[in-house]
Amino acid sequence: MSAIRLNSIVFSGKELVNMSDFAILYSFRRCPYAMRARLAILVSGVQVELREILLKDKPASMRQYSPKATVPVLITPEIQVVDESYDVMLWALGQSDPHNWLDADRKVVNELVAENDGSFKQALDRYKYADRYPEFPAEHYRAQGLEFLQKLEVRLITHRFLVSDSITLADMAIFPFIRQFAFVDKPWFDNSNLPQLHRWLDYLLATDLFTRVMTKYPVWQEDDAPVIFGGV
Predict the structure, then answer these.
(1) Where are the domains of the chain?
(2) 177-207 tens-digit pLDDT
(3) Which of 205, 112, 95 lies closest to 154, judged by CA?
(4) CA 58, 123, 56 angle in degrees (round to 5)?
């Protein structure tokens, strides 16, 4: 996870022509993967052309760039495609990292993000959509996810944030997923014995950065004027 995956896109044997000075970001406001990509873009100060989509009606252009058709999809001005959210974060912070999010033990960060994106995300999906996984009740999947939350709780006893006393890439890559887990059953989460995680989550939810990242934009249409996202 330490290397950014860039793919050149070719149609009809000819590479697409660059049409913009800005990278293009296909996004969906409520998706935690797209959310963390936007967090890194916004904090970096990089500007991108934002294309807000509907997951039930994905534009053909996005599918052409990335056949797996999951958000986020970033197309750089050089027509390279970055279609993994963690890689979009690394791309943005590689341009500019004014708050030193990359100033952390990358091995530790990668391991935390891998667990978040793997076993925890699987438990989260089953907990949130338990009716689609009737083999077990929602509480079973919640207990699986709780194991990861308890690991984060232990880390937050030692440091204010997940890796250090400052926000790093680990916090902002994981935060949107913990937010989603918490709001599946907010009363249960609020009453859980995770005081440090509650503090951490409440702090990040209250930041101006998160408020700006969650600004609503109209769904993108092919002929729309560009919507520029990011910058100082």
Answers:
(1) 7-99+213-230, 106-210
(2) 999 999 999 999 999 999 999 999 999 999 9
(3) 112
(4) 15
Helix axes 32-44, 169-182, angle to 10 degrees: 140
Q: How far apart are CA 60 and CA 222, in angstroms?
A: 10
Contact 121, 164 (CB under 8 A): no
Check if the beta carbon of residue 83 is closer than 8 Å to that of residue 74. yes
- CATH class in words for 106-210: mainly alpha
Domain 7-99+213-230, what fold? Glutaredoxin (3.40.30)
CA 231 to chain centre: 18
Distance (Å, whole) CA 110 – CA 70: 21
Question: Would the CA dihedral through 48, 220, 52, 10 be positive or negative?
Answer: negative
- Residue 122 pLDDT exceeds 80: yes
d(CA 73, CA 50): 10
- The structure tokens 């926000």 sit at 167
Cα 67 off chain centre by: 19
Residues 54-88 pLDDT 10s: 999 999 999 999 999 999 999 999 999 999 999 99
Beta bridge partners of 8: 80
What residue type is 118 in one-letter code? G
